Amino acid sequence: MKYTIPEQEIMCSGHKACQGCGAALAMRYALKELGPRTMMTFPACCWSVIDGPFPYSSVGVPLFHTAFETAAVVASGIRAGLDARGEEDVNVVAWAGDGGTFDIGIQALSGTTERNDNIIYVCYDNEAYMNTGVQRSSSTPWGAVTTTTPPRHFKKERKKDMMAILAAHSIPYTASASVAYPEDFIKKVKYAKSIKGTKFLHIFASCPPGWRSAPELSVELARLAVQTHVFPLYEIHEGRYYKMSMNPKKKDIREYLKPQGRFRHLTEEQVAHMEKMYDEKYEWLLDLAERSKPYFEAKKEK
Amino acid sequence: MQKVIMGNHALSWGALLSRAEVIAAYPITPQTEVVELLSNMCADGDLDAQFIKVESEHSAMAASMGASAAGARTFTATSAQGLALMHEVLHWATGARLPIVMGNINRAMAPPWTIWTEQTDSISERDTGWLQIYTSSIQEILDSVIQAYKVAEQVYLPVMVVLDSFVLSHTNENCDIPDQKKVDAYLPKFNNEYKLDVNKPAAYGGLTGPDWYYELRYKIQKDTERSLDLFVETGKEFGEVFGREYGLVETYKMDDADTVLVTSASIASTARPVIDAMREEGHKVGLVRVRVFRPFPSDLMRKLLAGRKKVLVVDRNISFGMSGAFYEETKAALYNVKSSPPMWGYIAGLGGRDVPTNVVRDMIDQTLSEDHPEGDIIWIGVKK
Question: What is the domain extent for residue A218?
Fold first, then answer.
């Protein structure tokens, strides 16, 4: 029998993730495809804790913990060091949360991407500063409650479009993925491994404590985010060509919002407003994907 | 090979001869020539290194950390605001035990905007665990880079090679460019025992509780102390190989000196002729130039200064609310010594104000004319 995801397990048990942690799942899947010839760097993020305290580690590959705003450029440095040592086949991965990517780490990430340094940057996005106790980040979606955006002043700003920012750097490859779609996720890791330059993977990673949702619903919520068009799965090649990874028939956004305490305060009117924002964005993506079709057809012919 | 070069280029030559494998840098006046020359050396193939042109000094140090963690010999250079921006990751480089060597050109901190020399930038980083060498000639800059790697790679600690902006960075002097083969013998290829290695997966810098953090700090302090001996040893060996010996301090006419001027960097060069002139007048004046400031050579300073009649320390830096740093630390080193001499602390040359021979003379004269210093700071020539 042929499995659709690699059988190898690099990450081991004993990690310190919360029940139902999407970020832990993301790491497990990513490492299955990345394999043992991989090095990682983590800035401050949930994974600084999940990996385990000194002297333990659960990722099974060399890991350099680093300062909050430096993941991308430390990866650039490791890459340069390995190239100097002649170990060009080793995957260098920066593995950061949304705070370390969308906010404090964006400068270094922009620099690394502009130089097109040969690394894979993975952002596991749980949509707030979960490790410090659920404070809003620029990745927190409109409408969400966090400890710094309480119900009466819930977040009124839209989630930053990190994929578009990366695309504006003409990054060779950027893709969104979800822990609810491991085959698609792994396919994207595989492609990222196969090409040179900076690759960015934006992983939707559910967070039961931060989203105030049941741990057993983690995968289901991640799947609903895709099915309700809240977190579409797509790729951008060469910073210009968009490709939808799937285009599911839209489910009611309320199915996604209701199980999460962070959205419980929203009125029907606010939900409708939210839905409209996501629909517009989705249409925009579909349009870009439609216009990119000749590029992918030509690529297939080759 | 003899070559007339500027101080900044002495840093570049030092990195080239040390066979730096990764360089990460960001431009700042007065450091730019360091990386410009290194870029050219890489482009021309004279230096086989990866050059990462980062978007900030913070990233310059972070990239250096990554490269050094991967086992590469790594070099960078900065100054003032750039060094201050690195502050967080300077601590990281030390805690991660990465033997990075960095040139820092001493420039005064803004505001107001300034580009002229003062040591407050590097003095502000004295608690980051970086070893610090303060140089006083173009030749010493080049030699110190090579020596810095030799020490850094034995104790797994980063080293800063410090030079005055313009006075050293942009001054041209004749410099002996050592033979590459001799440098290779003095400083062989580095094999980092703790580098990131896919065959030995391990996590570096993970969450450490009070049960082990204390011991990790103890180890840093012990290795920092060990570096004192290594600076002496490697400085002596440098002398045997290249004919120029370096120590923790440089002394001048100290044998019978009853009054000692303690200072650092280029002010020490200005002081030498003053001391010569005063000696001719019959004053028994000597000079101690502190070369290695971190670790501070307390034992040696006690040996050199205890029992003297008077000591004056000239600082081109200030720790607001206290005094100059070299004064502060020299005084601290001498505190528990029975025959500790009275100590005068002068602040001079901030923001690049010239410290010519007559100003050095004024400070020595004032010291000779007083029985005891008044206060911890003596200002020289403050305009009203």
Answer: 22-301
